[in-house]
Every structure is written in C-alpha cells, then in structure tokens.
Design brief:
This protein is 46% helix and 16% strand. It has 212 residues and is of the alpha/beta class.
C-alpha cells in the first residue's frame, strides 16, 4: 500500500464513551433506559436516523431527526473534550510517516471541528489532506465523499488502505476500489463488522499491519 485513509470518530479518535453518553442525554426525555457501549453498538447503523428509529421503535416524525441530531451534537461537543487518540494511533501515524508513504483523514464530522481537533492533538502534519463534512445533511453515507477525497489526492485507489470502524467506511472503500480493514473500537459491534466479510481487528496496530 502507498496510502492510508484514516477515519476519525471511533477510529483514530477514541470517543465511544462520549457518543454513548451524548445519545443517552438526547433520549432521556423519551424515557428510554440508558445504553451501555454494547447496547448502543447493537442498535447503531447508518444512516444514523435509522439507528434512532431502532432505539425508539418507531419512525421519526417530521423535523424530529433534525432536533435529535442537533441535541446529540450539542452534548457530544462537550463530552468529547475529555477524549483522546485511540491506543496505538500516534505510533501508527509516526511509523507510516517515517516510511515515506502518505496518509490522509476523511470523516463525516464537521470539517472545521475536525481540522481544529487534529491541530489541538498535534497530528495535522501527518496528513496530506483532511476532509470533514462541509455541507449536506449529517448522518448520510460516506461513499461520495470518498470519491471526492480520492480524486483530490490523485492517487490510485488500488494502492489505498481505508481504516475505519463502520460498515460505511468499508462500503466507501469498496465503492472507489480501495481496500478496507475495520476496527472494533468504534460504534459498530464486532458481530456486525465480522458479518460484512471485511477484515476485522481489535487494535489499530493490527489494522496498520494490513498496509505493510
């Protein structure tokens, strides 16, 4: 492999506890019992509004998705302040950079916040490109964003490894002809990841080994 495309939330950035806590705050008024990490993973899917419908056991009403999404992000942006990089993330970034090969960051998180957080964690310089969500409805699929990201990098997708924590990451990689490996530290259960047929690992170091 010549290039790694990293996902952010749940992959490089270990924020599962903040995600679950923010979700629990959002659904407190609905009387739902709090989720633990495994319970959240069992309900999680993309698009995220489908996961919310699973949690509620009914379709979302008109305008309800937008309100829930805003409430989630308001809570998440407070809770994520205590989150750090995933175990092994920094070593992987350094080792790959030292090898002279390139890497980039593609996330469905808001672009400005992504760029700012990468800078705060002092890892921006490892990436040839950082792309977050600039416009469009939040919670959608990643495939078309992957197309734009790959085209901007001007790199052969067959030489690219995508490391992410969701089936959406894998499908986006597949969409452009890249290779994917899925990490269990994020929001999707190991069972769902394994059922996809894509390689599944429990550490970023294991994922990183697929690039060598």
């Amino acid at each position: 492999m010549k290039h790694i495309i990293w996902d952010w939330n749940g992959t490089l950035f270990h924020d599962i506890d903040a995600v679950v806590a923010a979700t629990n705050k959002v659904f407190e008024p609905y009387g739902l019992a709090p989720f633990d990490n495994d319970g959240f993973r069992a309900a999680y899917t993309r698009p995220i509004w489908v996961a919310y419908e699973r949690m509620l056991g009914r379709p979302l009403r008109e305008g309800e998705w937008e309100a829930l999404d805003q409430a989630f992000h308001d809570n998440y942006h407070e809770l994520m302040l205590s989150c750090v990089l995933a175990e092994g993330a920094l070593d992987c970034l350094r080792t790959w950079a030292d090898s002279g090969r390139s890497q980039s960051l593609l996330s469905m998180w808001a672009h400005e916040r992504l760029v700012r957080k990468a800078a705060e964690l002092e890892i921006s310089h490892y990436f040839d490109r950082i792309d977050g969500l600039l416009n469009g409805a939040p919670g959608g699929g990643k495939a078309e964003h992957m197309v734009v990201h790959i085209e901007s990098l001007r790199i052969d997708p067959s030489k690219v490894l995508v490391i992410g924590d969701s089936l959406d990451d894998a499908h986006a990689a597949q969409h452009v002809g890249a290779t994917a490996v899925l990490y269990t530290g994020g929001m999707t259960s190991r069972t769902d990841l394994a059922a996809s047929g894509f390689p599944v690992v429990d550490t970023l170091v294991e994922a990183f080994n697929y690039a060598n």
